[in-house]
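User: I want to check something. If I give you two sequences, will you return the structure for each one separately, not as a complex?

Assistant: Yes, each is folded on its own. Here is the first sequence with its structure:
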Amino acid sequence: MDALEARVHRQLERMRELADRMAAVRVRETSADGVVTAVVDGNGALVDLELSDGVAELSPTDFEQTLVSTAASAARRAFAERGALVTGFNEEAAEDG
């Protein structure tokens, strides 16, 4: 019984650690021209946006495309990071099986 209880506590602690690490995911991406920098969280939500002075030289359409593509790239990287965390968690869980 003690071994089972210890195993459950280890699994619970690993799950809490996974949740904390997933909540801490932040990815920063800057457009190729350096005009837009987007920061997203692990859910792909935009949490920060920085625009350089060069934004004034972009047309509205170019600005929109740059913003969307930069934020989307950051979101893809954030999802990949979260996926790697989950994969690592699952591999550890399988080893403890």
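And separately, the second sequence with its own structure:
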Amino acid sequence: MRGADLAITGEGSLDEQSLGGKAPMGVLAAAKAAGVPTVVVCGRSLLEEGQWRAAGFTALHALADRASSAEESMRDAARLLRGVGHDIAASMLTPASN
């Protein structure tokens, strides 16, 4: 993680069980230790914003929030993920203050 500007991790369904030690939490722990912000990308989130923020994630992007149905979220995952990637990149490329 040293030298990284951002860590991105993912989970199919982000829920309370995820916060108990699944892969996203391992990525988050490593990123925190290196002082790197962490974004989580998931198919759907069953967590409230306060829960994922309290865990330490900087942002959350759920495909379900971009689709009209669960079926669309799964069927069009590649397209939806490209949109998520675009949004993450755009948020990282904000002009620096002078």
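Because they were folded independently, the notes below concern the second chain alone. The mean pLDDT is 92. Residues 7-92 form one domain.
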